[in-house]
Amino acid sequence: MPLATTRRAGLVDQVIEQLRDAVTQGEWPIGQRIPTEPELAGQLGVGRNTVREAVRALAHTGLLEVRQGDGTYVRATSEVSGAIRRLCGSELREVLQVRRILEVEGARLAAASRTEEEVTELRSLLERRNAELREGHWEDFARLDAEFHFAVVQSGHNTLLTEMYRGLTEVITASVAATSNVTPGHEYLPEIGHEGLAEAIADGDADRAASEACGFLDELLARVEQDES
């Protein structure tokens, strides 16, 4: 299927979306070299700088791999699987350490500041997350788990902490997937539930909420450190 010519507004985002679709829909399979920068620019009706920026963004997510002097290749069929390929070992450990710093205090603040509407949203996200896990919809599970943790932090009503956490969305989703082995063909590791965290926030128990958040992240860190040893 030929790529569509883009509109003039938001060119980079449009090119990113079209290149992503070509990968996820199988037009360019894993391991294949994609068309050259001039070819893509001609097909899409945009400048080479726009194509270069879009390719760089998708390489950052793990979907594409730029090989200097050779071309750009498809590395993964989705951004979650691409992120898993990149996120492992000491890098994964560091992400979990940062998550612990942010999420423990985020949980404490959430227990003190959450609204009833936010409690309802947390429980809804948790139910949807668990349903996707039961159905084996791995990427949706990882996405909803990350959304749940973001909702916890957001419920603390600290704008700076929320924006810091929002900036880590990609690596947080990848860390969920990497520590759960939520990809087809992998045995799922024993589930770490978050019902205790949600209920501690609902009860307004800041210390228990912080303990719940710290507990599951410590468990994930222990798993990673065991794998590294």
From TrEMBL:
<dbReference type="InterPro" id="IPR036388">
    <property type="entry name" value="WH-like_DNA-bd_sf"/>
</dbReference>
<feature type="domain" description="HTH gntR-type">
    <location>
        <begin position="9"/>
        <end position="77"/>
    </location>
</feature>
<dbReference type="InterPro" id="IPR000524">
    <property type="entry name" value="Tscrpt_reg_HTH_GntR"/>
</dbReference>
<dbReference type="GO" id="GO:0003700">
    <property type="term" value="F:DNA-binding transcription factor activity"/>
</dbReference>
<dbReference type="InterPro" id="IPR036390">
    <property type="entry name" value="WH_DNA-bd_sf"/>
</dbReference>
<keyword id="KW-0804">Transcription</keyword>
<dbReference type="Pfam" id="PF07729">
    <property type="entry name" value="FCD"/>
</dbReference>
<dbReference type="Pfam" id="PF00392">
    <property type="entry name" value="GntR"/>
</dbReference>
<dbReference type="InterPro" id="IPR011711">
    <property type="entry name" value="GntR_C"/>
</dbReference>
<dbReference type="InterPro" id="IPR008920">
    <property type="entry name" value="TF_FadR/GntR_C"/>
</dbReference>
<protein>
    <submittedName>
        <fullName>GntR family transcriptional regulator</fullName>
    </submittedName>
</protein>
<keyword id="KW-0805">Transcription regulation</keyword>
<keyword id="KW-0238">DNA-binding</keyword>
<dbReference type="GO" id="GO:0003677">
    <property type="term" value="F:DNA binding"/>
</dbReference>
